[in-house]
């Protein structure tokens, strides 16, 4: 088999050698006039053939294009009802590329096609289904044939042209039901992007890599606007250049895959090419000149044996800081003198400073990544194959917390070290690694059992270090740099066995799968330099602990582990060629809290050739993460008049037990979905799916409980013993209902000599609380007149109900013509609203602003040019029109004022009259004027990408 025929075989295309041009059969060296330089002048040629599926079915109305690499001209036709096509009047010679496209199948590109003068070249094209690996255990289901909605995101083309490079941001602007926004001023969450699906929690989306469970991070999001109180999976630890495609199952699937799959499942398929590769260089900067982002990545495939492969990816990237909107208000956030503008200006002048010198960094943290990725498979025989894949990521993050200033925190300013105050820097070092090894036994194909045995180990470690800070209780002896301020790590090991067989003679085809899984988790909080800890010293007027991040004391340095075993049965049957049903059962038992039994049922009916309807019902669960069970820390919270110290106490802590906070139990869910699949023509498809998800015993972080809460006589003393003024706990306090609809459509059509592609997607969702599960001893807190002392935190409740965009709509238009391509992408983010940080109840007897952020639309423009067949250049702009979300001041004016006042103006006048100074609410609105809500607030980003492909 020569190289050209082999390449066509790998693409799923058979090209009859007897009908090949001589140059293709013999692979003679390309000479000027015959090869890449130009087509050969002479009498016209014809390309003809037939398109079929891998199952031998003809594919009518398939789009077939032939593109001249020399002139970049394109001719496109549609195959007939019998799958045949003919393109005449072509210039003989070559090389040409033939591209074949059909919804539900992978695009086929046949390269190095040469046409003989006066002769017809015949192609027999076999299309491979664009099968999905989530929501089904059959190997031949496509996304459009699935009984549950699945988004398939082809990464190979996306990553080389669009502005984004991080996996979370790539998906943010590609999948309507997916949301991820970079955080700022949120501690560790500045360096790990939280992500969610269908408006649910970060920890309610299960992530798989090549079908195997991916570990979560060790980080608990505590100060963020997204994923507050939850633990998610860090998608950005994987190099996007090494990802072939991402499948997003938008339906509950815990019965199929286990805990966490309440909102859905994301499966990340790594590249499996055994030849070729690419180099990607991307660089860009914001329109304000900051936020320089540069990435260099390399991907290469190698052959292992006859059918095996080894695919390697490595990349490194840098992202600079950004700052937006700082404008310190001297009456609200003074530097030297509070409530006296004249004295403040005099102090600034005496120090030779201006407010510019105290600028608050408000934007993206500085982040550097080094990533590696591999994917391998070796076929020993038709009945034995070994595989393995893994990743490693090192990340260095540098972020800032609010300034510590003499006017607002005099006890934390040590004049010998920082006479004018300081802006603490909170930095992280993150190590993330994972590896899977497995073996597949048995022949593939119908009526053969296969057994997949695998073991996956995943590890995530985050260490903090601090700079430009101090522990004021140590006075001038305090370090200003803490090289080790503590951290945490999480280890997960999963052993899995799955048996699978497709019976083609049972009904119209029946697939049976069953298996078991053993998972072990281990979580540890690690102490660092004790001088950084909040518990270190309490013998001065100064608040204890390093400012910015106060480490973990001896009582917080915990270690815990748990195991669980599970078993499942999954049956999927085509009752007829038009009606399929499936069902799944799963049982899991945890060493810490008991067992769960869940199930799922789906159906799909092909009503007509162009229309199918589908539906599903499932029960699910999410075990409380080990991090939520064990996390304990004394933390610093931003307050109106400085830092307030509070404690997060775990289930094992004496304070938690004395307060009679219930032990954490699993969340449980019931999910319903119904939808339709419309394919009126091969060039157009549309899916619409409605869903309703009920979750019981949802886990959140409680409100701040303070002395006088009336919980127990010992509570106030226990707070004092732990040197905090308030406490929080993880608790199962909510029953919620989420309902919405997803719509996804695509259209492609030959337009002139080019190709037009239009994609659209939309998600509309709403979450409401069905019940509040408040223990009897806390019931009075939820009904008193002060909303800042509620057992259920109003801020977190609002983030759950309305903290995700109420709608998100994507519209993309792409047109390619010869060597040029242009794309325009619009992303509409719906309204977001949530409560601001609550004021200190010791000073104020009202709650916080309900902030309302109005909808925004972001537009991306990208222009591509291919100067050579192996090289693609893309110049573009993300957020072309420099759109930003509402500022906090605007959101406060859009929203609801504290204390039941009819307008913001009424509240501001009340506050001025009562306290004699302007209101500082919403909190930090001058030094943190923007909040990370629907999207980031960096504005326009200009970029250039260059991709060079090997093996073309």
From TrEMBL:
Its main location: membrane. This is TonB-dependent receptor. Residues 30-55 are annotated as: Disordered. It is found in: Cell outer membrane. It comes from Hymenobacter segetis. Transmembrane segments: none annotated. It is a multi-pass membrane protein. Keywords: Cell outer membrane, Membrane, Receptor, Signal, TonB box, Transmembrane, Transmembrane beta strand, Transport. Residues 1-26 form the signal peptide. It comes from the Bacteria.
């Amino acid at each position: 088999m020569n190289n050209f025929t082999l390449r066509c075989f790998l693409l799923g295309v058979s090209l009859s050698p007897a009908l090949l041009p001589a140059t293709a059969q013999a692979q003679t060296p390309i000479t000027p006039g015959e090869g890449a330089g130009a087509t050969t002048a002479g009498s016209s040629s014809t390309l003809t053939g037939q398109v079929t599926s891998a199952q031998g079915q003809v594919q009518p109305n398939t789009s077939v294009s032939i593109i001249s690499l020399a002139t970049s001209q394109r001719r496109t036709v549609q195959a007939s009802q019998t799958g045949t096509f003919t393109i005449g009047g072509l210039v003989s010679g070559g090389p040409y590329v033939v591209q074949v496209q059909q919804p539900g199948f992978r695009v086929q590109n046949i390269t190095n096609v040469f046409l003989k003068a006066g002769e017809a070249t015949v192609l027999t094209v076999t299309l491979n289904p664009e099968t999905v690996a989530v929501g089904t255990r059959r190997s031949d289901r496509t996304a459009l044939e699935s009984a549950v909605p699945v988004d398939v995101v082809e990464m190979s083309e996306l990553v080389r042209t669009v502005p984004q490079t991080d996996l979370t941001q790539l998906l943010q602007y590609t999948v309507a039901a997916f949301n991820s926004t970079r955080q700022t001023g949120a501690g560790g969450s500045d360096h790990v992007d939280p992500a969610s699906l269908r408006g649910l929690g970060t920890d309610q989306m299960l992530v798989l890599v090549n079908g195997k469970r991916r570990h979560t991070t060790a980080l608990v999001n505590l100060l963020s606007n997204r994923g507050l109180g939850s633990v998610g999976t860090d998608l950005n630890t994987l190099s996007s250049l090494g990802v072939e495609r991402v499948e997003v199952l938008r339906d509950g699937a815990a019965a199929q895959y286990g805990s966490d799959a309440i909102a859905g499942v994301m499966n990340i398929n790594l590249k499996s090419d055994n030849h070729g590769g690419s180099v990607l260089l991307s660089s860009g900067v914001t329109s304000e000149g900051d936020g320089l982002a540069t990435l260099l990545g390399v991907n290469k495939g190698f052959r292992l044996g006859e059918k095996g492969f080894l695919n390697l990816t490595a990349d490194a990237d840098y992202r600079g800081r950004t700052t937006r909107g700082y404008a310190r208000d001297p009456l609200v956030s003074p530097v030297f003198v509070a409530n006296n503008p004249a004295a403040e200006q005099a102090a600034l002048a005496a120090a030779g400073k201006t407010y510019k010198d105290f600028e608050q960094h408000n934007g993206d943290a500085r982040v550097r990544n080094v990533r590696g990725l591999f994917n391998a498979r070796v076929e020993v025989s038709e009945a034995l194959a070994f595989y393995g894949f893994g990743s490693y990521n090192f990340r260095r993050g540098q972020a800032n917390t609010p300034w510590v200033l003499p006017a607002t925190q005099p006890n934390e300013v040590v004049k010998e070290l920082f006479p004018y105050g300081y802006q603490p820097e909170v930095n992280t070092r993150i190590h993330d690694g994972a590896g899977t090894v497995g073996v597949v036994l048995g022949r593939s194909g119908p009526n053969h059992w296969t057994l997949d045995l695998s073991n996956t180990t995943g590890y995530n470690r985050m260490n903090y270090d601090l700079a430009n800070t101090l522990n004021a209780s140590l006075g001038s002896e305090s370090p200003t740099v803490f090289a080790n301020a503590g951290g945490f790590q999480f280890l997960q090991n999963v052993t899995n066995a799955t048996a699978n067989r497709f019976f083609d003679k049972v009904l119209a085809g029946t697939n049976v799968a069953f298996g078991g899984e053993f998972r072990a988790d281990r979580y540890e909080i690690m102490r660092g330099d004790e001088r950084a800890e909040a518990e270190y010293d309490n013998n001065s007027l100064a608040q204890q602990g390093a400012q910015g991040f106060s480490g973990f004391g001896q009582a917080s340095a915990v270690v815990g582990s748990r195991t669980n075993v599970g078993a499942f049965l999954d049956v999927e049957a085509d009752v007829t060629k038009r009606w399929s049903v499936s069902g799944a059962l799963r049982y899991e038992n945890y060493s810490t809290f008991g067992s769960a039994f869940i199930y799922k049922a789906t159906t799909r009916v092909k009503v007509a050739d162009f229309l199918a309807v589908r539906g599903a019902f499932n029960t699910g669960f999410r075990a409380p993460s080990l991090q939520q069970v064990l996390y304990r820390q004394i933390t610093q919270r931003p307050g109106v008049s400085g830092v307030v110290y509070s404690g997060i106490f775990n289930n094992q802590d004496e304070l938690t037990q004395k307060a009679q906070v219930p032990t954490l139990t699993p969340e449980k869910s019931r999910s319903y979905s119904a939808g339709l699949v419309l394919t009126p023509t091969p060039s157009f498809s549309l899916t619409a799916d409605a869903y309703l998800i009920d979750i019981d015993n949802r886990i959140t972080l409680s409100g701040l409980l303070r002395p006088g809460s009336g919980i127990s006589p010992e509570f106030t003393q226990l707070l004092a013993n732990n040197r905090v003024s308030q406490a929080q706990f993880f608790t199962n306090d909510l029953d919620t209902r989420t309902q919405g609809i997803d719509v996804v459509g695509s259209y492609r059509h030959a337009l002139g000599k080019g190709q037009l592609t239009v994609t659209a997607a939309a998600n509309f969702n709403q979450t409401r609380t069905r019940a509040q599960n408040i223990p009897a001893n806390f019931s009075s807190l939820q009904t008193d007149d002060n909303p800042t002392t509620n057992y259920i935190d109003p801020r977190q409740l609002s983030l759950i109900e309305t903290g995700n965009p109420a709608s998100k709509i994507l519209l993309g238009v792409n047109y390619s013509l010869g060597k040029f391509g242009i794309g325009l992408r619009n992303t509409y983010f719906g309204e977001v609203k949530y409560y601001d940080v609550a004021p200190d109840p010791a000073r104020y007897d009202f709650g916080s602003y309900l902030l309302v952020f109005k909808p925004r639309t972001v537009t991306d423009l990208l222009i591509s040019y291919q100067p050579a067949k192996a090289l693609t250049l893309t110049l573009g702009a993300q957020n072309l029109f420099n759109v930003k979300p509402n500022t906090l001041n605007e959101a406060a004016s859009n929203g609801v004022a504290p204390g039941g006042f009819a307008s913001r103006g009424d509240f501001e006048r009340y506050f001025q009259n009562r306290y004699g100074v302007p209101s500082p609410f919403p909190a930090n609105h001058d030094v943190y004027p923007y909040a990370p809500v629907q999207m980031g607030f960096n504005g326009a980003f200009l970029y250039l990408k260059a991709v060079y492909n090997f093996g073309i």
